[in-house]
Each structure stands twice: as C-alpha cells, then as structure tokens.
UniProtKB/TrEMBL annotation:
This protein's name: Serine hydrolase
Organism: Micromonospora endophytica
Stored Gene3D superfamilies: DD-peptidase/beta-lactamase superfamily
Keywords: Hydrolase
GO molecular function annotation: hydrolase activity
Pfam families: Beta-lactamase (PF00144)
InterPro entries: Beta-lactam-related (IPR001466), Beta-lactam/transpept-like (IPR012338), Diverse_Enzym_Activities (IPR050789)
PANTHER family reported for this sequence: BETA-LACTAMASE FAMILY PROTEIN (AFU_ORTHOLOGUE AFUA_5G07500), BETA-LACTAMASE-RELATED
C-alpha cells in the first residue's frame, strides 16, 4: 500500500479555496444519501494538488473511507488491458491491422445482424474481418447483453451473458461464444460499447502464452507498484473493500447491493479484461502518472511516449465523434466532440460537450461511478472513486470537471 500526499496547490496553479468546493459539493451527495462515501485525487505536473475522502466505505458497518480503501473499478480495467496489449504490439507480436481470427479462430467468419427478432434473426456475412484495432476502439460490432438496446443484445442475454457471465465460464469459452453470435454492425462502421476488451484480454493470453492475470501482474501491475490491484479480495483486505450500492429509483438514495457487490470476494473464473479489477486510489494514481509521463514512472517504462500519444488520438473512422458513430446504451462519456482512441475516450473538441476540458484529454470510467481523466495539455490527472451503480444515476463526472477546472488559475 502506498500513500498519496498533497503538495501546495497554489504552487501548482490551483486556488485551494476553489479546490475545497469539490469536497463541499460531493459532501452533499453523502449528506443527503446519494452516495455512501468517496475518494478524490487531483494532480498537476506530477504533484498531488488535492486529495480527500468523505463519508463511509461501508455505511452499514460505520466504516469510513480511508486512504487505503479498495474500490471495484469495473470498466477502468479497460485502459489497463489496452496498455498491456500495446506492450505486445511494441514487441512486434501483432499489427493493429491483423485479423484477430489469426489467433482466435472463432472470429474468422463472422456474420452481422441485418433484421428480424431474437428468435429469428437474419444475418449477412461480415464484409470486413475484425481486426485488433477494432477491439481497442470498440468498433468491432460486438456488444454487451446488459445494455438491452438491440436484438443482438438479446442474443447475448439468451446465451447467458448479461451483466455477468454464466458460472464456471472462463475467458476462452466466453470468447468462443461471442464468436458464434452475430455482430451488431459491420466492423469499422460504428462505435458500440462492448465485450471487445474482454476479447482483447483473450488475445493477450493467446499471443503471450500466459493467463491474463499473470500477464497483467508480471508486466503492468507489479512493475508499477500497483500491489493493491487485484481480481478479488480475501483475508484481511476484505475490511478495506468498499460496499457496493445502487441508486434507488424512487428516492435516489444509495441502497446496499450485496447481490453484485459480494462477487468481489470470490475468485473469478472469467478474467474480465473489460471490467474485472479492484484497485485503490494510490494504485490507479500510479497508472495515470505513468501515462501522463509518456509511459514511464519511477524508472519503469511500460510504453514509449510516441505509443501513448498514438493511443490517445481519435481513431474513429474518418475522425468522426461518438455523437455520430455511437450505437448508444452506455453512460461512461458524453458523445459530441468526443472521439475514441486505443482504449480511451478522447476529447477532440470540448465545446460540443459543454465542458471546459482540453482538446487531447483522455479518460474513462466504471459502472460504479468511478472515473479518471488525464489532461496532457495542463498536465492534470483527476481520479474519483465511489461505489454506486449505475454510473448514470448522477452527473458526477461533468460536475467534477467543472469544479476542477474552475479551480485552475493559470
């Protein structure tokens, strides 16, 4: 476990009194019951400008949020998996334009949904194979069963893949099943949030010859000192894990959700590169600092600076934004003016999103309302941790940007 210590915010260009507004604002979320508790870290130029906690990690037990609290980061696993894949790319193990069917034969001859119902879908052949860059950009045509926005989503649910996979299914079997289901759209023609990063995790396994957990531990987590980041929690660490809550649709209050939350105490059969990790603020802080520094931290280099810059450009077809290409059904980002890189949403133009971000900022979040962003222009990183599903319950992410950038004075 590492500790995050703050520097003088004024020396970093922030107004400390304005940074205090963040705590006051999100403190009200706890005081009125919308959140149980939260943790926040804001940095600039590699120094911590503001770090704070508020409320309870376990409301029913009366346990406060502490510096070492563990959080289910869900889809904030995706950037870690994407970085791991690009480490293999840097070694020449594959090209971004390679067909994934070369390693995962279940994806060799895909079909695409055209019309009809879930009981009788009509499909056509894919005119473009799924390539590695399609997985990294969510343009493969895969989907998630839990989004419930299309017939193809229904086919995923019918196969047993809703919010969680069927019991005893491992990553290899899940990938095989995904390869039997029709695509939502022709690869490379739209953007659909999906199991693509799980399939990318399976690709890492086949290419590297290691299980995903071993590869991530050996190549990313342990080298960066992310010793708290794990797939499940046991032993004495169980007391550090925050409880999971859901927003009551009638009252808006956070209600304990152990049916899903308790899964974090079980060793998973399926290693989800798209949403399986648990982490701490200190650990994810180290990950974001490595990215901000061009792929290196404390003498450990994961990626070359040019690779990080390449990953955090908009890779959507024709330079279009998510407002144009998204199939909908998710809440981890706004759409207009937002592109997507190799594992991250990317701000192309902050004006359409009505947020004071910098062009070139990249970020993502998790379904339990966790979030991070990295602004290479201002050299800012921001991380917010809580445990409330769904992430669309409250406008935490845009409000956090408003408050952080309003405190920046230079």
């Amino acid at each position: 476990m590492s500790t995050i210590r703050s520097t003088d915010a004024a020396q970093l260009g922030f107004d400390p009194a304005r940074l205090a507004r963040i705590d006051e604002h999100f403190g009200r979320y706890v005081d009125d019951g919308r959140l149980a508790g939260w943790q926040l870290v804001v940095t600039r130029r590699g120094e911590v400008a503001h770090a704070s906690t508020y409320g309870l990690r376990d409301r029913e037990a009366g346990a406060p949020v502490a510096d070492d609290t563990l959080w289910r980061i869900y889809s904030m696993t995706k950037p870690i998996t994407s970085v791991a894949a690009m480490m293999l790319w840097e070694e020449g193990r594959f090209e971004l334009t390679d067909e994934i069917g070369r390693w995962l034969p279940e994806f060799a001859d895909m079909r695409v949904y055209s019309k009809g119902s879930a009981l009788k879908p009509y499909t056509v052949p894919a005119i473009e194979p799924i390539r590695v860059w399609h997985l990294l950009t969510h343009t493969a045509g895969l989907t998630y069963g839990w989004m419930q926005t299309s017939v193809v989503d229904g086919l995923y649910r019918a196969a047993g893949y809703d919010l969680y996979p069927p019991p005893e299914v491992d990553l290899a079997e899940a990938s095989r099943v995904f390869g039997t289901l029709p695509l939502l759209f022709q690869p490379g023609t739209a953007w659909g949030y999906s199991v693509a990063t799980d399939v990318l995790g399976r690709l890492i396994e086949v290419v590297s010859g290691q299980s995903l957990d071993t590869f991530l531990t050996d190549r990313v987590l342990r080298p960066l000192g992310m010793d708290d980041t794990c797939w499940y929690v046991d032993g004495t660490d169980t007391a550090r894990l925050a409880a999971l809550y859901a927003a009551d649709p009638a009252t808006g209050r956070a209600v304990r959700h152990d049916a899903i939350g308790d899964l974090a105490y079980e060793k998973p059969t399926l290693l989800s590169g798209g949403g399986g990790l648990i982490s701490s603020a200190a650990d994810y802080h180290r990950f974001t600092q490595a990215l901000l520094r061009g792929g290196e931290l404390d003498g450990v280099r994961l990626l070359a600076p040019r690779t990080v810059r390449f990953m955090t450009r908009n890779h959507l077809p024709g330079g279009q934004d998510l407002g144009t290409l998204s199939t909908g059904g998710f809440a981890e980002t706004s759409l207009d003016g937002i592109g997507f890189g190799l594992g991250f949403a990317v701000v192309d133009d902050p004006i359409p999103s009505r947020l004071p971000s910098s062009a070139g900022e990249y970020y993502w979040g998790g379904v339990a309302s966790t979030a991070f962003w990295i602004d290479p222009v201002e050299e800012i990183t921001a991380l917010f941790f809580t445990q409330l599903v769904p992430s669309s319950a409250w406008p935490i992410r845009p409000q956090l940007r408003q408050l952080v950038y309003s405190a920046l004075l230079d």
